[in-house]
Design brief:
single chain, 288 residues
Length: 288
């Protein structure tokens, strides 16, 4: 039972925000390219389930790899010093075994999709497992996280017909800036410890102008939502739903955010799970 509890803690299974933020872009890419009239509902729900399962598996494996790579740094940060690998409750060897097993199961999920989606997913693996190293060398680790976490948007699109065009690429670019925003907010929790031990982040780079940077990031994301709606010819109700998304991004998140308060940063970060659902719901309504 103790090992099970350590596994759950290691993979952050009790904190669904991580895998949900990985899942929502997959769901966006899937719904925006799905044709319910021609393809029915079964395949949509089946693919949605596969993307959710894959998100849980890959996020869990990513957490383990992240903790292995960062174990020496995590032990020096108050918020992370008690993580299983940093505190040596779980060995690096056991962690690698867990991560490998999770990746194998994720591969069994992946092979249910078409060839292009499989190849593109496999091509993203280097990004997924090198991300933890980026905060040692660049002030833009959040950008690499955005590239990795939103890649599922393209996979969701290609899973339908094995093709790709400008629409998912525009949506993907916008979603990267969404992640750039919310993970910068998350990073403000550790900014003091990160500066002491020499780690880098956009939180540190833009600490003197945090709100300008966040407003810019979210604005680019919001503009991408408008452009995607236009290109896909979503209906009028989609644009009505964008009002809710606008209020969430710029009022419920940024207007209320206090970057010097850890609880404010964490709560704002977590609220992006709601935002992901609102975007998904807006896309569904837009295709009715």
């Amino acid at each position: 039972m103790n090992q099970l509890n350590l596994f759950i803690e290691l993979t952050r299974l009790k904190r669904p925000i991580g895998y949900m933020l990985l899942f929502w872009p997959c769901a966006w890419g899937l719904i925006v390219n799905y044709n319910f009239t021609e393809q029915g509902y079964y395949l949509f729900y089946f693919y949605l389930f596969l993307f959710l399962l894959g998100s849980i598996l890959m996020r869990s494996a990513g957490c383990i790899v992240n903790d292995i790579v960062d174990r020496k740094y995590d032990s020096k940060v108050l918020r992370t010093k008690n993580r299983p690998i940093a505190s040596k409750k779980v060995s690096v060897q056991r962690g690698l075994f867990y991560a490998g097993t999770l990746c194998l199961i994720a591969f069994l999920v992946l092979i249910n999709f078409n060839k292009l989606t499989i190849y593109m997913a496999l091509a993203s693996m280097p990004f997924a497992f090198t991300y933890p190293l980026m905060k040692r060398y660049t002030y833009w680790p959040q950008l690499f996280l955005g590239i990795t976490f939103n890649y599922g948007l393209i996979l969701g699109w290609t899973s339908i017909n094995g093709e790709i065009n400008s629409v998912p690429l525009i949506f993907y670019l916008g979603a990267i800036f969404w992640t750039l925003g919310y993970d910068t907010i998350y990073g403000f929790q550790d900014i003091k410890d990160d500066e002491i031990i020499g780690l880098k982040s956009t939180s540190i780079k833009f600490k003197k102008i945090p709100y300008k940077f966040l407003y810019m990031s979210y604005s680019i994301f919001f503009l991408s939502l408008i452009l995607v709606g236009y290109l896909v010819k979503l209906n009028f109700y989609y644009y009505i739903s964008l009002l809710l998304i606008f209020l969430h991004l710029f009022y419920l998140q940024l207007k209320r955010l206090n970057v010097k308060n850890s609880n404010s940063c964490l709560n704002t970060f977590k609220s992006n799970n709601d935002l992901g659902f609102y975007v998904f719901l807006g896309l569904v309504i837009g295709k009715l």
